[in-house]
């Protein structure tokens, strides 16, 4: 039985890789039309000269004076070779909801190679289009396409958005405009350090993809104490076994001194409000310091660390086929004793496979008072009128499900609740990333 469970899990994980890649690169129909206004003969330092004034306000660094002097309160990271209309809605949901708004920064890690190639093909100048020129065209297009996304446009105009071209070769991703193999990026020690982040960027970052949305205003300080926050996974036996088994494998079975913390029983979760598997990486908050610690403690072949460095590490990340970075960090961080939210708290942050109510159904008897205590702590915001508990009660009274702060393509596991007044009320931006066919379901379900 346990073997079967493990097999199921691996199948499940591998399936996820496929979905992940599809979602990441192909799901979106509307790709931003990059600006290709290249006049015939005018040249400017050998480059085509645009009629447009290139006030794109996105460069490699932040231009906002307050950010320069006092840093970002949170850096939001989007890794996407080709931004789409949907990407902009995801960014808009963050720009509108991550407080304090005026101190939230954005970094877009993207590609310019295709744009550069197209510009060259469409241009009559003999000189080569430079990277800088292509970069500016992409930046300008992003700004132009953000007209319909006022909060993100505001972030652009105020100099809180920067962009860089992802060094796909360094991370061994598929190609300059196809970031397939994205887990390798997250498993690389360098990805969490100065190669990718500036002095102004926060240690605690919010990672976004095209298929995750921020539902409501949320206050980052409520979560900063943690190493990693993501939507929890259901703590079924297979998942419980998979994590300790991997931990043991990573330590070559020699885990006498460093045994994996036991997963709490349901009773412990109920009475001590314990941990569960946390969690989904697609929309997650992470401490970069902890990511660096974890990638050094248990380096995988993708860590980018030298063989010598890997040899002295206490743990070796011998990954299975189909092993994903979020499962890896969920295991390592838990094993290392990193601060992680409890199952219920993590469910208040994000929904992927289960809603917060469904976790409560598994762990009955987390009483109303305790639920409200956690809600008060994690949903508190000095910037909103309605209090966290009031909001929580309102959702309970509606007899619908609790809408967490973020959604990561929850429609894959459950149909029928996403295109409802309830979801629209508590997660207004969600409709912009919900696939058309999901809008056909109107069943109300808890
Ligand atoms: C390039 O030159 C050809 C021939 O003069 C012209 O037809 C075409 O429109 C030009 N293309 C661009 C992008 O200016
Ligand atoms: C900004 O962050 C850097 C480190 O990333 C730190 O050295 C500096 O003191 C911070 N500045 C402020 C004003 O907090
Ligand atoms: C954004 O661009 C405009 C137009 O070039 C410029 O006036 C403004 O100062 C820029 N904003 C920042 C924060 O650099
Ligand atoms: C466990 O502790 C013993 C004695 O302190 C030490 O010799 C051994 O290497 C440790 N094993 C691991 C896996 O750390
Ligand atoms: C939870 O407790 C609050 C007050 O403590 C109460 O107003 C609310 O109705 C309770 N909810 C349920 C579902 O019992
Ligand atoms: C929507 O639902 C109806 C009735 O169940 C079905 O006939 C139709 O094919 C569905 N449309 C889509 C786009 O899924």
From TrEMBL:
Residues 173-354 form the DUF5672 domain. Residues 1-20 form the signal peptide. Pfam families: DUF5672 (PF18922). The keyword Signal applies. It comes from the Eukaryota. The keyword Signal applies. This is DUF5672 domain-containing protein.
